Amino acid sequence: MRATVLVIDSFGIGALPDADKYGDAGSNTALHISENIPGGANWPNLMKLGLGNASMLLGNDLPGCPAVDKPLASWGVMNEASPGKDTTTGHWELAGIILDKAFPVFPAEYPSFPPELIEAFKKETGRDIIGNKAASGTAIIEELGEEHMNTGSPICYTSADSVFQIAAHEDIIPVDELYRICEITRKLCDPYMVGRIIARPFEGSPGNFVRTSRRHDYSIALPGDSILDHLSSNGVKTTAVGKIGDIFNQQGIDKSWPDKGNPACLDRTAELLSKKDDKDEFIFVNLVDTDMIYGHRRDIQGYHDAVKAVDDRLPEFINLMDAGDLLVITADHGCDPSFKGTDHTREHVPLLYYIKGKDGVELGIRESFTDLSLNLTIFFSVEPFKEGNFFAL
């Protein structure tokens, strides 16, 4: 048996009840994309699986992707129980870990980082920094890329997430050296409980800088076992695709494919599904482009088209599944491209739970993302995991 979970990064489906505390009241990634595309969203396979039905649980009809009479998948939406709206928190909760408090964030204004942290950074890495503020990743390399090339100082910046990001031109600071700097920074940031350190290599010349595919995330240590640990220890092969390995620090993962970008991750998923194995397998996939390339840049059409590219591959994935195999489509948070600012939005996420050969049923509004991890243990017939509630399938 195989279970594949596709996380369409930031594909939220409606503001959570506490979204106002985050400045996100009224956000709705899926709905606002659908409303801003002429003729509505063109996601026919997600529609057949029940994306429109899931949206209607929150009272929202998705233009172009309405509810259907008999969805192929079981459908619902999930409420994030953990505080926050970042990648690490969302993925960890999908994997059975609920956080008691949000990861801390740095102030947006210069200087964002505590002076003692920067002094330690300088001492341990032997380099000064430039930046030291919250910024869009593409904007800050345009602003400071030339200065970085002249000085050799890495561009250090943050965002509304709990991150310390380090951008460097590959000709000025080679990627291996950038990774070494990030490993040092990870240790320095552990006492501050920073969620992720992110290496952001780029190339090109002033006015024409481009980030490369060699991004690498260094997540804070997990506070305990995740569903990956639990399944692996119970004889289920765990396979990570995209940045899943980074998010979970490779913990509980038997095989990691760190493919970059949605096309490569979708190709890898198809390859994995085409291989038959006697051993049960859990395939955990992150599709980052919706968030990284389109959500943060508030590109509505680009976001829609990136979801369409996922939608186009779904019939292929379903054809590769055996009877009884599971395909789950969900998200980790929102990033409404029609909303103010450039940050994530605190939203429900869709839950499409398709077992090949089994009729779909309504799953309702779930209280936590951890319901997914618990029900994965039911699917694989292993001891139930520590958090979540059962689906009435």
From TrEMBL:
GO terms for cellular component: cytosol. It catalyses: 2-deoxy-alpha-D-ribose 1-phosphate = 2-deoxy-D-ribose 5-phosphate; alpha-D-ribose 1-phosphate = D-ribose 5-phosphate. Its EC number is 5.4.2.7. InterPro entries: Alkaline_phosphatase_core_sf, DeoB, Metalloenzyme, Phosphopentomutase_DeoB_cap_sf. Pfam families: Metalloenzyme. It is an enzyme of class 5 (isomerase). The gene is deoB. Mn(2+) 1 binds at D9, D332, H333. Belongs to the phosphopentomutase family. Isomerase that catalyzes the conversion of deoxy-ribose 1-phosphate (dRib-1-P) and ribose 1-phosphate (Rib-1-P) to deoxy-ribose 5-phosphate (dRib-5-P) and ribose 5-phosphate (Rib-5-P), respectively. The keyword Metal-binding applies. The lineage of its organism: Bacteria, Pseudomonadati, Spirochaetota, Spirochaetia, Spirochaetales. This is Phosphopentomutase. Its cofactor is Mn(2+). Keywords: Cytoplasm, Isomerase, Manganese, Metal-binding. Pathway: Carbohydrate degradation; 2-deoxy-D-ribose 1-phosphate degradation; D-glyceraldehyde 3-phosphate and acetaldehyde from 2-deoxy-alpha-D-ribose 1-phosphate: step 1/2. It is found in: Cytoplasm. One of its GO terms (biological process) is nucleotide metabolic process. Its main location: cytoplasm. GO terms for molecular function: magnesium ion binding; manganese ion binding; phosphopentomutase activity. Binds 2 manganese ions. Residues 1-373 form the Metalloenzyme domain. It comes from the Bacteria. Gene3D superfamilies: Alkaline Phosphatase, subunit A, Phosphopentomutase. Mn(2+) 2 binds at D291, H296, H344.
